[in-house]
Design brief:
Elements: E1 6-18, E2 26-40, E3 45-49, H1 56-63, E4 71-76, E5 79-80, H2 86-89, E6 96-99, H3 113-123, H4 132-142, H5 159-171, E7 177-181, H6 189-206, E8 209-213, H7 217-223, E9 226-231, E10 234-240, H8 241-246, H9 251-259, H10 265-270, E11 311-314, E12 317-319, H11 352-358, H12 367-372
Parallel strand pairs: 3-8, 3-9, 6-7, 7-8
Antiparallel strand pairs: 1-2, 1-4, 4-5, 9-10, 10-12, 11-12
């Protein structure tokens, strides 16, 4: 069996809650990530989905050691990096890089694009053949930017172009793994398609592995090979893309699938909408037993007292539920052939007019196009 590029075991990230006053005591813990286990193989994309506040981004930052985990293990390319110091982590940054959610705040406005993309070479003391400037300009061209804009500043670029700058910076050291923290959520729909196409092309060219954090299930289906569903700091279900979207078993996954709008009125009328009751519980005081039991339509007494383990129900399909749903509830989001993106040239302009033009899709097109119509 092939050794995974990334192995995460029982990862926990808790933040202390302190009392007010002169003597600030720790009175609780925010259990942002509370014992997740996952793995990613070389060249594979694992999608991590869930509603806002479930701990997806915190999990990604903990895996990258931008946050120091409270517990568990993070094994990257055969090396346990869980307890490494900041200095000890420096050489391992070549193996894993990150693309951040906000392309506006992720770039230093005082630095030129050339210095931003070239910074990893300086930090890691890497001297590319031909010099840093030549390598940076080649990276800019590869991600669809004009190399002649080497000396421009971030404020001179659109949102989509800024995200391409972030992608180029992440590629600089030729990593094996890139953690993508909602890289397209701040972009227009047509620009999302261009960036997703670019990420897929780069994966094929360089054999990259992605941890793709997002809350848009249609985007995740397009780019992922396997998908993990997260709720209140826990993994609820993990399966291959096709299995998860056609035959989910966890009640929470069914609810997520039913919440995604379908632009085809005929298909939408055949799907059942599951309305979850109540709000997302506080991670400071999560429910006892299964953390989803307070909102679950299939919860029973056992769910309120016993924490379900993430067990494999079929090969490659793991579910953390005492009573998994094996029959169809009419909530399946997508069935049929694999999705495909509408053709978007890499050098397409990132402008409102281009976005308006490129966002015109036929209702009968493939799933990605359906989502954008």
């Amino acid at each position: 069996m092939t050794t995974p590029l990334l192995q995460v075991e029982d990862l926990k990230m808790h933040f202390p809650v302190k009392s007010r006053g002169l003597f600030r005591r720790v009175v609780g813990q925010v259990r942002a990530v509370d014992g997740i286990t996952l793995h990613i193989n070389s060249g594979e994309t694992l999608g991590l989905v869930g509603e806002s506040g479930c701990g997806k981004s915190t999990a990604g930052r903990s895996i990258m050691r931008l946050l120091s985990p409270t517990g568990g293990k993070v094994i990257l390319d055969g090396v346990d990096i869980t307890n490494l110091s900041r200095r000890e982590m420096v050489p391992h940054r070549r193996t894993a890089q990150m693309i951040f959610q906000d392309p506006y705040s992720a770039l230093n406005p005082r630095h030129t694009v050339g210095s931003i993309i070239g910074a990893p070479f300086i930090v890691q003391k890497v001297k590319p053949v031909g010099g840093v400037r030549k390598e940076v300009q080649e990276l800019m061209a590869r991600v669809g930017l004009n190399p002649e804009h080497y000396n421009r500043y971030p404020n001179e670029f659109s949102g989509g172009q800024r995200q391409r700058i972030g992608i180029a910076r992440a590629l600089a050291l030729k990593p094996k793994l890139i953690v993508c923290d909602e890289p397209v959520s701040a972009l227009d729909v047509s620009i999302q398609a261009q960036v997703i196409n670019l990420l897929q092309d780069l994966q094929q060219d360089f054999g990259l592995a992605y941890l793709f954090v997002a809350h848009d299930l249609s985007v995740v289906r397009q780019i992922s090979h396997r998908i993990s569903v997260m709720y209140l700091g826990h993994i609820m279900e993990t399966a291959s893309r096709d299995v998860l979207y056609s035959a989910p078993q966890h009640p929470y996954t069914h609810a997520l699938m039913s919440a995604v709008p379908v632009p085809n009125p005929q298909l939408a009328g055949k799907r059942e909408r599951i309305m979850l009751q109540g709000d997302l519980p506080s991670p400071i005081n999560p429910p006892k037993g299964c953390v989803f039991n307070t909102r679950c339509f299939a919860a029973q007494e056992r769910c309120r007292v016993e924490v379900p383990e993430l067990i494999e129900v079929t090969p490659g399909h793991q579910v953390a539920c005492h009573f998994p749903i094996t029959e169809s509830l009419g909530t399946t989001l997508i069935t049929g052939p694999d999705p495909g993106l509408t053709e978007q040239p890499d050098n397409a302009p990132d402008s409102p007019n281009a976005a308006a033009t490129n966002a015109v899709f036929e209702a009968g097109a493939e799933p990605w196009a359906q989502r954008q119509s």
